[in-house]
């Protein structure tokens, strides 16, 4: 048996060990440091085309008031053509940002890209083509039209328009699909969750293929359900709408306190998944299902001044405890941009440019600014590579370690033992005890928080007997037993998976 075959066997053994969470997953209580941090972002009140200064001015005011720059700027984008220009992506907000921020100062732009028509903007009928034959204000693009390719041309032009911009974009397409008052909630069109997935994949595939042709790739995809499905029934659970790992870069989530007395924990759950008003605790449940970084893409509280300030403080205290949570985007607006509706703002970023808005109590602004002041909360969204964990996580707020539990060697050989950890503390004590005829080399001093993968080698002497040995690995006094099987070439061939 050659070395590559033996390596395959050991990889398969490791994979099977990791898959069985009861064997090889251990919990060590410890205080976790989030070295990647939690990026802060904001959605600001939309500005009408032609308004003096525009959203760039508002963002500048917001950043100054909070004494920390937003890492993400979120705004809603319908499927309209841009007025007066040959684009389907309306660049009005981008032009406004250009006026106030150099490229290296600009936040990532989260486009909540809604497949519907809003006629306050001009419509490029040519680019929409057969995508929707009844272009009516508030009209949803039929999901069947998108699935059947009638919108492909529009999507291609949109992908090219985005590719022509220098910014980093997060594309939050067809959000909150799991609540009944969303236009693209499938039953509203006589469809099912599988049809939503087909629509999402079609849009993703066309967009990605077009950017592949142009060689410009600046869109990261955010799949973003609501924290609580409505109706609250199993078939409508958020995970039935998941389009698949290959189609999702980030998981977004929406959840508000609508002046209803619900705490942050009651909405999102605690780090161990408990405490949710509508269980399970969705942030913990998502981390256990999907190996994807998380963003609170819309969050806010509407309530009395004191309650709102306390809610904000509680949110910022709890958020860093969730190991996959990488960003919070505050909805700094009234509900539905209607000044008569619930007010989620923490600062009046529009000021005299929008006299219809009421002033925000200064104690709320002060509490928000104070709460995001720790260095844990950052002005830079990590890269997708940095933010993506190597495994799912079901550890309930405690560190979770996975270790290769079985290794096969011939006398005189060496083999790799892998250690992975999620939600781990900054420093650990790692010790390996391997008795003669085995020894350990290149043992890591520690793993990097919040997650990491390291390896070291177990070495067998040439005189090692053909038997099973025990190696002991300790991480912060928690023991991980490792079986090392020393065998010859004939006895090693016992796994059916390699017989062909």
Main attributes?
single chain, 2 domains, 500 residues, 22% strand, globular, Immunoglobulin-like, alpha/beta, 5-stranded antiparallel sheet, disordered C terminus, disordered N terminus, TIM Barrel, 8-stranded parallel β-barrel
Describe the structure.
By secondary structure, the chain is of the alpha/beta class. The chain folds into two domains: 3-31 and 399-498, Immunoglobulin-like (Sandwich); 38-387, TIM Barrel. It is 25% helix and 22% strand. The protein contains 13 helices and 18 strands. Strands 2-3-4-5-6-7-8-9 form an eight-stranded parallel barrel. Strands 1-11-13-16-15 form a five-stranded antiparallel β-sheet, covered by helices on one side. It has a four-stranded mixed β-sheet with strand order 12-18-17-14. Helix 2 crosses helix 3 (92-100) and helix 6 packs across helix 7. The radius of gyration is 26 Å and the shape is globular. Mean pLDDT is 86; it is low at 1-33 and 492-500.
CATH topology of the largest domain, anyone? TIM Barrel
Task: Please tally the β strands and state the result.
Answer: 18
Tell me roughly what share of residues is in helical segments: 25-40%
Give the CATH class of the largest domain.
Alpha Beta
CATH architecture of the largest domain: Alpha-Beta Barrel
Strand order of the largest sheet: 2-3-4-5-6-7-8-9
* C-alpha Rg (nearest Å): 26 Å
For the termini, the CA-CA separation is: 13 Å
Major beta-sheet overview: 8 strands, parallel, barrel
Low-confidence stretches: 1-33, 492-500
Note the total helix count: 13
Q: How does the helix and strand content classify structurally?
A: alpha/beta
Mean pLDDT: 86
């Amino acid at each position: 048996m050659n070395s590559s075959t033996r390596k395959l066997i050991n990889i398969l053994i490791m994979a099977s060990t990791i898959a069985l969470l009861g064997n090889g997953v251990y919990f060590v209580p410890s205080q976790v440091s989030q070295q990647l941090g939690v990026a802060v972002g904001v959605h600001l009140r939309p500005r009408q085309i032609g308004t003096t200064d525009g959203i760039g001015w508002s963002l500048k005011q917001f950043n100054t008031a909070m004494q920390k720059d937003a890492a993400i700027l979120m705004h809603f984008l319908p499927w309209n053509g841009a007025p007066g220009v040959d684009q389907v992506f309306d660049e009005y907000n981008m032009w406004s940002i250009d006026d106030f921020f150099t490229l290296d100062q600009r936040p990532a732009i989260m486009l909540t890209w809604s497949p519907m028509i809003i006629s306050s903007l001009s419509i490029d009928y040519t680019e929409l083509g057969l995508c929707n034959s009844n272009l009516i204000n508030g009209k949803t693009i039929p999901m069947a039209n998108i699935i059947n390719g009638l919108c492909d041309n529009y999507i291609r032009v949109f992908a090219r328009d985005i590719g022509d911009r220098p910014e980093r974009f997060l594309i939050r397409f067809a959000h909150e699909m799991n609540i009944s008052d969303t236009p693209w909630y499938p039953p509203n069109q006589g469809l099912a969750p599988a049809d939503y997935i087909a629509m999402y994949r079609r849009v993703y595939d066309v967009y990605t293929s077009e950017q592949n042709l142009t060689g410009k790739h600046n869109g990261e995809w955010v799949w973003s359900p609501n924290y609580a499905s409505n109706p609250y029934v199993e078939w409508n659970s958020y995970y039935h709408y998941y389009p698949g790992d290959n189609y999702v870069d980030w998981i977004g989530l929406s959840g508000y306190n609508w002046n209803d007395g619900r705490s942050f924990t009651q909405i999102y759950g605690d780090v161990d998944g408990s405490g949710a008003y509508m269980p399970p605790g969705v942030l913990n449940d998502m981390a256990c299902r999907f190996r994807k970084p998380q963003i609170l893409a819309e969050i806010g509280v509407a309530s009395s001044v004191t309650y709102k300030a306390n809610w904000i403080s509680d949110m910022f205290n709890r958020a860093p405890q969730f190991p996959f949570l990488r960003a919070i985007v505050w909805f700094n607006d009234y509900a539905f941009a209607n000044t008569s509706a619930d007010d989620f703002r923490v600062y009046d970023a529009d000021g005299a440019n929008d006299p219809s808005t009421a002033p925000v109590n200064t104690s709320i602004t002060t509490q928000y600014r104070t709460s995001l002041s720790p260095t844990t909360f950052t002005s830079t969204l990590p890269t997708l590579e940095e933010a993506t964990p190597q495994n799912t996580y079901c550890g309930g707020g405690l560190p979770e370690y996975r270790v290769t539990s079985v290794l096969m060697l011939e006398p005189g050989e060496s083999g790799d033992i892998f250690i992975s950890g999620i939600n781990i503390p900054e420093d650990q004590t790692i010790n390996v005890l391997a008795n003669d005829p085995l020894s350990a080399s290149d043992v890591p001093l520690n793993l990097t928080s919040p997650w990491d993968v390291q390896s070291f080698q177990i070495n067998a002497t040439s005189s090692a007997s053909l038997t099973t040995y025990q190696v002991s690995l300790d991480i912060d006094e928690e023991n991980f037993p490792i079986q090392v099987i020393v065998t010859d070439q004939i006895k090693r061939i016992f796994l059916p998976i390699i017989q062909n």
